[in-house]
Structures are given as C-alpha cells and as structure tokens.
Amino acid sequence: MTMPTQVTIGPRHVAIIMDGNGRWAQSRGRPRLLGHRAGARRVREIVAACPDLGVEYVTVFAFSTENWKRTQSEVSGLMSLFRRYIQTEANSLLEQGTRVRFIGDRLRLDAKLRGLMDMIEALTAHNTRVNLTIALNYGGRDEVARATKRLARDVASGRLDPEAITDETLPRYLDTHVLPDPDLVIRTSGEARISNFLLWQSAYAEYEFVDTLWPDFTRERFEEVLSRFGTRERRYGGMTA
Ligand code: FPP
Questions:
Q1: Tens digits of per-residue pLDDT, 195-236?
Q2: Residue nearest to atom 3 of ligand 1 (CA)
Q3: 195: CA distance to ligand 1 center in Å?
C-alpha cells in the first residue's frame, strides 16, 4: 500500500515581532543597543533564508509607535542603527533579490532616515525574490486611524460612496495595501501579546510564541516554527472537507 504523500504548504507571508534584544544584552552585562545590533544581524539571516523556505513576504516589527517612550539614548541608538542598516545592507539586499518596503508613519522620523528609506525602496523596487517589509514607527491602531482619515477624505470629496464600503475597502487604505495578509505571526522572547502589530491584517493568521530571544533566533529556530505551521489546518472560520 502506498502512503499518501503529505503535502506541506508553508506560510507565504510571515510577520515577526522581534522581542528580547534588551534582555539578551542585559543577561550578558552589555548595553541594550548591543542586543539591537545582534538583532539586526538576525534580520539579515532570516531574510536570506526565506526564498529557500518558500516564504515570499517577511514583515518585521522594528520600531513601534510606543517605542518613543524608551530612553532618549536607546531611541537615538535605534534610529542610527536603522540608518546604518539601510546604508550597509542596500547592495546585498539588491543583489539577493529582496524588495524592501516600509510601513508605519514616516512623518515623525528624521529627514535623513526618511531619505534612506525612500532610496532603498526605489533601489529594490524591481526585485521579486523576497519581500522584506520593515515596520518603523508602526502601530496597528495608528495605521487604521491614518487609513480612515484618507478614506474619509475620499468620501468627503465624492470619490468614495459610503454605501459601497465593504470589508475590502479599508485594506486598500492601509500601509500594507500591496501585501497579502500574514499567514503566520511569530513573537520571540516568551511574551504572548500582539502589541498593536498588523491588527487588521492578522485576522486569520496563526500565532507562534517562542521563548527564544530575538538575537538567538537562528535560521534553524525559524525552520522549526515553519514546520509546525505546515502541520496545522487553517479553516478561516469555515469547515474542512
Ligand atoms: C524589541 O526588543 C526590539 C526592538 C524594539 C527593536 C527591534 C530592532 C531590531 C531587531 C534591530 C534592527 C532591525 C532592523 C530591521 C534593521 P526589546 O528591546 O523590547 O527587548 P526586551 O523586551 O528584552 O527589553
């Protein structure tokens, strides 16, 4: 008797809440920023692994609308890390076939960082191998509020008929309007919270909360999480055949 072949369909879009950088550094008696630097190296490793693993979209939560409450030195350290990351990674991301996008409210970011963000988005705009989206000054509620403002303007100007609004209307105004919804959301470091990340988009996503701190989240850990996803059934509220 032949056994049926088990077909495993992996997630197409993985979103990651990269938590635990601070604890990783503190447990080594080092400054928190060192943990963020180690975290940035993991971003590189995970993005590079995506094409082999069938992941077409990876979205990482780099800085939330709430993160401004951290100390001034941590905030400015993170901002300079983002600038440096874009400058130093641009060429390899381009050569790797990665298309880079940003979501979040750019207005509060400094002009130099915004310029670099525009630069890398334009530079990689023709890449198709993997889509890296970096959430920077991002909050799910803030995104919905900004989207609603744009939608309301279209209603006010007569471009949008309020009676024609369905659950497919708002997503067209979200920062993520060109992305598919995430299939899997991973949060590292043992916290089981979604922290305002992709609130609308994750309505049907699977969640995986793993204990590993982000700077220790290797490609092997990533593969383990992806293989668990393959064994689950997704029903989207319906019935299985
Ligand atoms: C959460 O860990 C992590 C952040 C607020 C920053 C995430 C940033 C990176 C991984 C660096 C670079 C990313 C890119 C895309 C270049 P935490 O500081 O809250 O950790 P803790 O909970 O242990 O304090």
A1: 999 999 999 999 999 999 999 999 999 999 999 997 666 666
A2: 19
A3: 13
Minimal-distance CA residue to ligand 1 atom 8: 62
Residues near ligand 1 with C-beta < 6 Å?
18-23, 36, 39-40, 43, 60, 62, 67, 81-82, 85, 134, 189, 214
Total domains present in the chain: 1
CB neighbours of 138 closer than 8 A, spacing ≥ 6? 61, 63, 64, 65, 103, 104, 105, 175, 197
Supply the pTM of this predicted model.
Answer: 0.94
Q: Is 154 a catalytic residue?
A: no
Which residue range forms the structural domain that includes residue 91?
A: 10-138+181-233
| Residue 155: inside a domain | no
How many other C-beta atoms are found inside a 10 Å radius of the C-beta of residue 16? 26
* Residue 80 domain flag: yes
Q: Is residue 129 part of a domain?
A: yes
Hey, how many other C-beta atoms are within 10 angstroms of the C-beta on 1?
3
Q: For residue 147, how far is its CA from the centre of ligand 1 (angstroms)? A: 26
Considering the domain boundaries, does residue 78 fall inside one?
A: yes
Give the CATH number, domain containing residue 50. 3.40.1180.10
Shortest-distance Cα residue to atom 13 of ligand 1: 40
pLDDT digits (tens, 9 = 90+) for 187-198: 999 999 999 999
From the CA of 191, give the closest atom in ligand 1. 22
Rounded Cα gap, residues 32 and 26, in angstroms: 6
> How many A from CA of 36 to the centre of ligand 1?
5
